[in-house]
Design a protein that fits this description.
Layout: H1 9-12, H2 16-19, H3 32-52, H4 56-63, H5 74-81, E1 87-91, H6 97-105, E2 108-112, H7 129-139, H8 143-156, H9 163-180, H10 186-200, H11 208-221, E3 224-226, E4 231-233, H12 236-239, H13 244-247, E5 254-257, E6 275-279, H14 282-293, H15 297-300, H16 302-312, E7 316-320, E8 324-336, E9 339-353, E10 356-357, E11 371-373, H17 389-394, E12 402-407, E13 411-422, E14 428-440, E15 443-446, E16 453-456, E17 461-466, H18 492-508, H19 517-527, H20 533-544, H21 548-564, H22 569-586
Parallel strand pairs: 1-2, 3-6, 5-6
Antiparallel strand pairs: 3-4, 7-8, 7-17, 8-9, 9-10, 9-11, 12-13, 13-14, 14-15, 14-16
Length: 587
């Protein structure tokens, strides 16, 4: 398959802080065993999911160019995804939740390009191309669901995290890598599991990001659609797991009507889910998402929103009622009667309006932080932002005047006005002072020798959210994960087995003669007695060629493998069922 990079206009629009997560998909890294794993899972999935998945799944496979016999090329997918308004990029395992969701907001599907080991063919806790490519991609061909995914990303990337959330992300990333890697010592896995458990039990009050991740899990990853009595699968985690897609349809898994309470139901990424949620329609998902968004600081602002940003200890933004946006790391909020009356950031801060940084108000200018009162002037019903030019003159709020502004809550700003900055609607959003003193009761918040004082104008904080208003205001190229995915080890035995898988693949593709099958089978039986998938593939070709005597030998060998390895009995039976059931259906 071609690995030539095909451009997609959506990828060209991605900001640099998202581009840092993208890695090239080297198609040549996929081995013949990888291809066999993909083919087995896809054949099982298409056979089973055609009966239990939402009808968008099979239609989406065709629309997104996902093939059954070949691992998809990211660049080939992009050519096809472009037609439905999406794109795909390859990444290394789990990326931070905010970034993952922001990619979705740009209509870009994030695909972990590694593929699970044969030993984890049914399920892996690590994201892989089966999960992303065969799970997520087909469903986005449904326009209603695709809009839900985009909207979820748009809202989700603004969710405020707690200081513990990133620790949890790193811990889960490490655990998924260790569990997927071959030969990881059990004590390392147990230590990583213990760390995840400790964090899960000590997260405190769940952050917005933790809550919206729960919604993401119970819809995008593990969602069912229809009725509780007759659900269909649409979640990518189920669509890509041949084990859990079957398990979830049994009575062992409780089915609940989906609603906003799913945000408070946690999940364990390393175990099958004990309950799942059923949405009546894709449109209903958007209703619950909007209901959740209405509870977020993004739409509520206020003291609670500012305090969430302070607790996160991470870059965030508040928006004043004038539309002025302050982005930085928030360190303090002075409150009075449950309302913020003064906000403070520390370190580089940027002021923006409508997601565009104001000229002269970047992080270099506000390098030491930013502080400003919030609210109305004491004893005056008219807020500064609502004052006409005549009102401003009446209260001496104009250039060259020395003025003392007393705000509700006893914040006092006293200095000489240099200038004011207005938005496009003509409202003043920033007033700059010289020789300025700012106090709260007896506490000095700003003094003249510190230089120019820039005061935000706004009677209330209407929004607070994660990240900057203008992504170009900050250097966000900071992602250095503490763990890297572990590649399978190479050995002479493994290389020989890979070569045999390739030979069988060449025979199936018509590039080699089927007369080599008996010799290949004897080699497998002798040198790789525990491998089961290659013998299943050989059985498929022997059945197709009516080579009954050797086929009987292969079947006897597979029975011997089943006796030695009871954990793969259902996998062998599942593969053989595809071969012989298909044969029966043709009779």
């Amino acid at each position: 398959m071609s690995a030539t990079i095909e451009t997609n206009p959506l990828l060209d629009k991605l900001p640099n802080h998202l581009r840092q997560f993208i890695k090239p998909q080297d198609y040549n890294d996929y081995t013949p065993i990888n291809q066999a794993v993909w083919r087995y899972v896809m054949r099982k999935n298409v056979d089973y999911l055609s009966r239990v998945a939402h009808n968008s799944y099979l239609e989406g496979l065709k629309k997104t160019g996902i093939e059954i016999d070949n691992i998809p090329s990211m660049y080939g997918m992009n050519r096809i995804l472009k037609e439905i308004g999406w794109a795909a990029v390859a990444v290394d395992g789990f990326i931070p939740p905010n970034a993952f969701m922001e990619f979705q907001a740009y209509n870009v599907l994030v695909i972990a390009s590694d593929i699970r080991q044969l030993e984890h063919i049914e399920y892996t806790p690590a994201p892989d191309i089966i999960h992303e490519g065969a799970g997520h991609a087909p469903i986005i061909a449904n326009p209603e669901y695709a809009e839900y995914l985009r909207r979820f990303g748009e809202i989700g990337c603004k969710a405020i995290s707690s200081a513990r959330d990133y620790e949890m992300y790193e811990a889960i990333r490490l655990l998924s890598i260790l569990k997927e890697a071959e030969g990881t010592p059990q004590e390392e896995i147990e230590a990583a599991e213990k760390r995840v458990d400790e964090l899960q039990n000590n997260m405190g009050e769940l952050s917005e990001m933790a809550l919206i991740r729960n919604l993401h899990w119970w819809t995008v990853e593990y969602g069912l659609i229809g009725t509780v009595d007759d659900p269909k699968i649409y979640g990518a985690g189920l669509l890509s797991s041949i084990g859990e897609s079957t398990w979830c349809m049994t009575d062992n898994v409780k089915k609940l009507p989906y609603d906003i309470n799913a945000a408070y139901q946690s999940f364990d990424i390393t175990k099958p889910q004990p309950q799942l949620y059923v949405t009546p329609s894709f449109a209903y998902l958007n209703g619950v998402l909007e209901e959740f968004a209405n509870k977020m600081a993004l739409r509520r602002g206020g003291l609670d929103g500012i305090n969430k940003l302070i607790a996160s200890k991470a870059l965030g933004t508040i928006e004043f009622s004038t539309g002025l946006q302050v982005s930085g790391i928030f360190s303090n909020a002075i409150a009075d009667n449950g309302k913020p009356i003064y906000i403070q950031t520390t370190g580089g801060t940027a002021l923006s309006h409508r997601e565009k940084e104001l000229v002269g108000h970047g992080t270099l200018y506000h390098a030491e932080g930013f502080g400003s009162p919030v609210g109305k002037l004491k004893g005056i019903n008219l807020a500064i932002e609502d004052m006409s030019p005549r009102d401003l003159q009446a209260y001496a709020i104009y250039e060259g005047e020395h003025v003392t502004l007393e705000f509700e809550g006893n914040i006092k700003v006293s200095g000489t006005i240099i200038t004011g900055t207005r938005n496009l609607q003509g409202k003043i959003i920033v007033i700059s002072f010289k020789d300025c003193t700012v106090t709260h009761n007896d506490t000095i918040l700003f003094q003249p020798e510190w230089g120019i004082y820039d005061m935000a104008v706004g009677k209330e904080v209407i929004s607070a959210f994660s990240g900057p208003a203008d992504v170009s205001s900050f250097d966000l190229i900071t992602h250095v994960p503490s763990s890297q995915t572990i590649k399978p080890k190479k050995s002479a035995t493994r290389e020989e087995l890979e070569g045999m898988y390739q030979s069988v693949r060449d025979i199936r593709d018509g590039k080699a003669s089927a007369t080599a099958l008996p010799e290949l089978f004897n080699k497998v039986k002798q040198n790789h007695p525990n491998d089961w998938l290659l013998s299943v593939e050989i059985a498929e070709l022997l059945q197709k060629n009516n080579t009954t005597d050797v086929l009987n030998e292969v079947m006897a060998h597979l029975d011997a493998v089943k006796n030695k390895r009871p954990e793969v009995v259902h996998l062998i039976d599942g593969g053989l069922e595809l071969i012989f059931e298909k044969e029966k259906s043709l009779d």
